[in-house]
From TrEMBL:
Pfam families: CN_hydrolase (PF00795). Residues 1-209 form the CN hydrolase domain. This is Vascular non-inflammatory molecule 2-like. The lineage of its organism: Eukaryota, Metazoa, Ecdysozoa, Arthropoda, Chelicerata. SUPFAM superfamilies: Carbon-nitrogen hydrolase. It comes from Tropilaelaps mercedesae. PROSITE patterns: CN_HYDROLASE. Transmembrane segments: none annotated.
Length: 305
């Protein structure tokens, strides 16, 4: 079946908080069609789904007793068959976090589909009850190293949850929010990015064609002369511990917490050095936000470079 996915806030890119709330719409009941009078944007998208015979997933500002960041899925009849209100907001003024658990949607030819919105991916509610056949992740996720990139986040989620995931990211070049892809539980995937100055970008993937490529960095699948560079965080704030043994135990002491890490290197290499990074404190992100975080990563470094 055909599946068209739009990124988080794809209908509201560039709008102010007030403009976003003014563009909000009530979401009709499941298995009903949006109204041309009350749901203008959704009704337009429903016509697109009907005209092309596809399932369409989009992000809207829902107006109910409060305002919500809501993902909806329309079927080829133009009817709403699924909805997910974002639970964990990220600097989204005027919106209310939801307490509703995510609901799975059945799509013929695919199976049980999980709708996940951006920051929700990092919390236990996503895929906690039983494995889905596919997860759809609508996001506005900037690429920043270490760890917080669409590639590493989506790939790690697919592996740890043993579930394929499609990532649909917003496009803001200055933040590195450029990529989209599908990631599989074996670590492989298909991933593409667009550097076009146009705001529109369509990434096409075949869910039936798994890739043998293990994607670790955008440069694995992009041209080497690309101008793209992930935003690099200040590495001096990390305690760095080289993992010199194949397996072992480490004690990590942060400002407000301590933990013991048991590790085992499954793919050792004479050319690669593995380093554990630990830090705690306020971190500034690519979009200007500041969060107090406890961070722990393992990074692989090529000894030759």
């Amino acid at each position: 079946c055909g599946l068209l996915i739009c990124p988080e806030h794809g209908l509201h890119t560039g709008l102010s908080v007030e403009q976003r709330l003014l563009s909000s719409e009530p979401i009709p009941l499941l298995d009903t069609e949006p109204s041309d009078e009350n749901q203008i944007a959704l009704a337009t998208l429903a016509k697109t789904a009907r005209a092309n015979g596809l399932y369409l997933v989009c992000s809207v500002i829902e107006r109910d007793e409060a305002f919500y960041n809501t993902t909806v899925i329309l079927d080829p009849r133009g009817k709403i068959i699924g909805r997910h209100r974002k639970m964990h907001l990220y600097s989204e003024a005027g919106l209310m976090p939801s307490r509703e658990k995510p609901r799975k949607v059945h799509i013929p030819g695919i199976g049980q589909v999980e709708l996940i919105t951006c920051f929700d991916l990092l919390f236990a509610e996503a895929n906690q009850e039983s494995n889905s056949d596919l997860a759809l992740w609508l996001t506005h996720w900037y690429d920043e190293t270490p760890h917080l990139t669409v590639l590493s986040t989506a790939r790690a989620w697919a592996i740890s949850n043993r579930t394929p995931i499609v990532a649909c990211n917003a496009r803001l070049v200055r933040e590195g929010t450029l990529g989209a892809g599908v990631f599989f539980p074996d670590g492989s995937g298909q991933y593409s990015m667009s550097f076009s100055k146009k705001r529109e970008a369509l990434h096409v993937f075949d869910l039936n064609e798994t890739s043998s490529a293990i994607i670790r960095n955008p440069r694995d699948v992009l041209t080497p002369d690309s101008i793209y560079q992930p935003i690099a965080t200040d590495m001096s704030r990390f305690d760095q511990v080289p993992l010199v043994r194949m397996a072992g135990t480490l004690r990590i002491d942060l400002l407000t917490a301590s933990c013991q890490i048991i590790y085992e290197l499954q793919r050792p290499s004479d050319e690669t050095l593995y380093i554990m990074l630990a830090a705690e404190g306020t971190r500034r992100f690519g979009n200007g936000d500041r969060l107090y975080m406890q961070e722990l990563y393992v990074v692989a470094v090529n000894k030759k470079t």
